[in-house]
Task: inverse folding
């Protein structure tokens, strides 16, 4: 009788998949969670409203945050909330395919802060400068459009 090997990914627990995803996302988002003095765990705690010990337990695979905490975690890590909901077991993989199916209209655009983060701008001062510059450019575009509409 032939034997078949199970898919290794299928053998990983839900908690382990969640932790791996969060750890990778935290690294991409600039949180140094592996260095004792990196401050990443404390920064995640501050950004999500979770306690540092809760963040530590989550990253150790001992607990999975509640749905409201998952929302804040998704924002802090700049990852889709649906991914965290599926990996945490709150919703099924099948439900993931239905997200957005009833929405109409164009997808939401990035906020200025999200754009800064997506571009790798992490420093609070630089994010403020980026936001000021972007706001100025947006206002100038609006004024140019108004002028063009009046034939000026």
Result:
């Amino acid at each position: 009788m032939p034997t078949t090997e199970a898919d290794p990914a299928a053998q990983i627990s839900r908690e382990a998949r969640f932790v791996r995803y969060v750890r990778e996302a935290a690294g991409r988002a600039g949180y140094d969670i592996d260095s004792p003095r990196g401050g990443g765990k404390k920064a995640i705690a501050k950004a999500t409203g979770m306690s540092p010990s809760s963040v530590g337990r989550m990253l150790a695979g001992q607990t999975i945050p509640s749905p409201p905490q998952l929302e804040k975690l998704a924002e802090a890590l700049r990852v889709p909330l649906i991914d965290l909901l599926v990996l945490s077991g709150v919703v099924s993989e099948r439900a993931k395919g239905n997200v957005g199916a009833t929405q109409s209209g164009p997808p939401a655009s990035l906020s200025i802060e999200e754009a800064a983060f997506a571009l790798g701008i992490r420093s609070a001062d630089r994010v403020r400068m980026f936001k000021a510059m972007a706001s100025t450019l947006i206002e100038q575009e609006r004024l140019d459009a108004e002028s063009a509409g009046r034939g000026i």
Observations:
- The CA atoms of residues 139 and 145 lie 10 Å apart.
- Residues 1-6, 101-107 have pLDDT under 50 and may be disordered.
- The first helix runs from residue 8 to 11.
